[in-house]
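Re: export button greyed out
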Amino acid sequence: MRCYIGLDIGGSKIMGGLYDLSDHLVASVKKRTKANEGVETVLEQICKVIDQLMEIENISLQGIGVGVPGIVKSNGMVAFSPNIPFSNYPLRDYLMERYQVDVKIENDVNCLIIASVKTANRGVKNAIGLFVGTGVGGGIYINSALYTGNGSAAEFGHMVVNYDGASCGCGNSGCLEAYSSKTAIQAYLRQQIKRGRDTILKASVLDDTIIKSSELKHAYDEGDVLVQEAIQRSAKYLGVASASLIHAFHPEVIIYGGGIVDSFGVPFIESIKQKALHHVLPGLVETVRFESSGLGKEESSFGPYQLVKTTTKACI
Amino acid sequence: MRCYIGLDIGGSKIMGGLYDLSDHLVASVKKRTKANEGVETVLEQICKVIDQLMEIENISLQGIGVGVPGIVKSNGMVAFSPNIPFSNYPLRDYLMERYQVDVKIENDVNCLIIASVKTANRGVKNAIGLFVGTGVGGGIYINSALYTGNGSAAEFGHMVVNYDGASCGCGNSGCLEAYSSKTAIQAYLRQQIKRGRDTILKASVLDDTIIKSSELKHAYDEGDVLVQEAIQRSAKYLGVASASLIHAFHPEVIIYGGGIVDSFGVPFIESIKQKALHHVLPGLVETVRFESSGLGKEESSFGPYQLVKTTTKACI
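Workaround output, generated via the alternate export path:
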């Protein structure tokens, strides 16, 4: 049976999936990344996942697709990853040499847009992804393929939506990420608490760690006015940015994903859409769909699998 | 001799050029559009230009490329043009039937980005165009071809750079065009004159017609403080928008053109660049070039020519 392996390498765990040519998940393996133990250990963990998947009988491996949370160069080098000890590491060549198959490697958010387009069989040629979690990431799918420009396209979180506005972690101000990310939502809540306002999430908000999307959702549903305000503020600027993305790319669909979108669901996307509609030129918006990524956590190897499947021809 | 014809249909004149396969301009013809005399007359003028170009001896016409200032559908219909009486007119089919050659038709700003990339032999795969005149238009060149998305991509003038900011002609606020276009420059000068400030261009600014770029340049060079301020404001927001475009597309080059850029030249592009550099994530900007379109007025048929040349194979 001809198969591909998809690998999602995260800061804490590595998810591997073995897929047949009809997108069916044949087997999956999950291991800890052990990022704090250094490159050699991480590589060992990666290979353990692959080796275990290859124990399935009668498979003929066609290629391996890898998603990494970091900057990946077109030559397959992982230039930098904030949570994994790769620094200019030739991960693609290492895996190609070891397994003697084609290996494709990409930034994990770029894998998300491929997964989003393929999961729901959206039947589109041009799609934009906006992924709202701790930060705001993006993905571009043009002419039925991933588009990365000169390597780092789709950094939508750092599009300027409000010149001289809120401060962003990047050092500038007015970026989308400074309004709509979970980090920005938490910063806004903190600021408002300092000004004397209250929320049932006060302790979690003031905590040093990043707040959970599910906690925000719970407070929102409980009628917490401040949390509702922060979430609506996030949606508002995602709407403004979506309008800019429609003017720039005029895609068939904008796909929304990430922790905040997954937690707040369809009504959140509807708020984004209403704001965007208000800002888009007549004639452009009628044909654009606003959809949820529909990705579950169990499928994080699906994007890397699609990455390699769509760019590597299976042998006959 | 195998040739292509490029046609730039403007609100006041039609420019036609006959090119050989080596991009050499063999002949050119210019006629009035006579837009106010109706569709039939405009078609007659278009055909007169073509017919006259085809009088050259021993040519074998391979195709006709047409640029139109309006909305062009993928089926070759001119849906709407503000200055020419085309309304859902099948211009492509009309010319194909009449001349029995392949005809490609596109929005004129989309032709500009093709022309800009080809004129200077920039040797790039991915480029973004920003054209600053009465409005702000854009063009996208991806994987060595024009990208129009679902038909209307690259409306960069209506990307939101400053939420709740200056009013735009489109009915929204904070659009790039509301800061950087010639219309916006004139509106800003008017507003400041109302507030009691002065400029040597007072009469021209208050005139009902749109001010000339050359007049603005003259006043700028004369040291007119208000005009200098308005131009720097235009450059500032073009810089902010350029940063967003780099984050979105990560192109190899951003190409600047249009009346304002042509008049103010390299120092204007340098101001844009400096502002953009300030807003772009480190690691992204080093590889991006900021260049002038380098298009002269005599070459307006060059983009339409390249449009048809790059998509239609010449017969052997």
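Residues 73 and 79 of chain B are 7 Å apart (CA to CA). The button fix ships in the next patch.
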